[in-house]
Amino acid sequence: MISFTIITCTYQAAEVLGRTLDSVLAQSHGRVEHLIIDGLSTDGTVALAEDYRRRSDEDENGHRVVVVSERDRGLYDAMNKGIAKATGDYLVFLNAGDVLPACDTLEQIACSVADGETLPGVLYGDTDVVDVDGHFLYHRRLQPPSNLSWRSFRHGMLVCHQAFYARTDIARQTPYDLRYRFSADVDWCIRVMKAAQTQGLALRNVGMVVVNYLAGGMSIKNHRASLKERFSIMSRHYGWLTTVAMHLWFVLRAVLRRGR
């Protein structure tokens, strides 16, 4: 049975972290490593994480919890630290406030990989968006395709970052590019998929909702800067003309939707 590393990067996240930790603690799958990479929070985040580590140890659920709190150079630097420490077959980033939808979510994802088969490069699934109280708001508008490739992201980030399980060996070879402040996750997913394709590895849709994503986030709060970075990233991977053409289509699509 495959193993997972969940990476939660935190800073002043005490208000929303608890439900994230509880959702991982409740997982029936035993081969789970949870890395909490904190940026020297002062609001009780670290105390919550340490209490969670103790509860997990007492539960004897087979989970391994590691808490690190130290200065970093921002979110994506913290994510790179998590990648470097990960020991599971797959890793995924679960932000404070995001939750695994059911206690058997990881078990079901693991069951999508048959014993003895070559591990797919990426496992991915659907996303539901929730509010700060954890209540369902809507299914994520961009839906993951049945057949994903690195070229798919020309049409936008079709797979939510928190629904993207990358093989750890590939992730370690493709750390986040710290030149990007708001959209390095888009670039990272594309590069992981490119690396998987180069190695002839499948990208597998597990056919289920794998994360309840908290509405908001860094790229939403810095929307304009994020869009500029995404344009740069898409131009780099798909070419300038293709990127311009796709953005014109995005604008036309938004106009058509407003007109309905």
Describe the structure.
By secondary structure, this protein is of the alpha/beta class. It contains nine helices and eight strands. It has helices at residues 14-25, 45-59, 75-85, 105-111, 168-173, 184-198, 218-221, 223-238, 240-258; strands spanning 4-10, 32-38, 64-69, 90-93, 122-130, 136-139, 164-167, 203-214. Strands 1, 2, 3, 4, 5, 6, 7 and 8 form an eight-stranded mixed beta sheet that branches. The mean pLDDT is 93.
What count of helical segments does DSSP give? 9
The best one-word shape is: globular
Structural class: alpha/beta
Beta strand count: 8
**Which blocks of ≥5 consecutive residues have pLDDT under 50?**
none
Q: Look at the structure and give the mean pLDDT.
A: 93
N-to-C series of helices and strands: EHEHEHEHEEEHHEHHH
Q: Compute the separation of the termini in Å.
A: 48 Å
Helix % is: 40-55%
Question: What oligomerization state is this entry in?
Answer: single chain
What labels describe this entry?
260 residues, alpha/beta, 9 helices, 20% strand, globular
Quick rundown:
The chain is 40% helix and 20% strand. The protein has 260 residues and is an alpha/beta fold. Strands 1, 2, 3, 4, 5, 6, 7 and 8 form an 8-stranded mixed beta sheet that branches.
How is this fold's topology laid out?
Elements: E1 4-10, H1 14-25, E2 32-38, H2 45-59, E3 64-69, H3 75-85, E4 90-93, H4 105-111, E5 122-130, E6 136-139, E7 164-167, H5 168-173, H6 184-198, E8 203-214, H7 218-221, H8 223-238, H9 240-258
Parallel strand pairs: 1-2, 1-4, 2-3, 5-8
Antiparallel strand pairs: 4-7, 5-6, 5-7
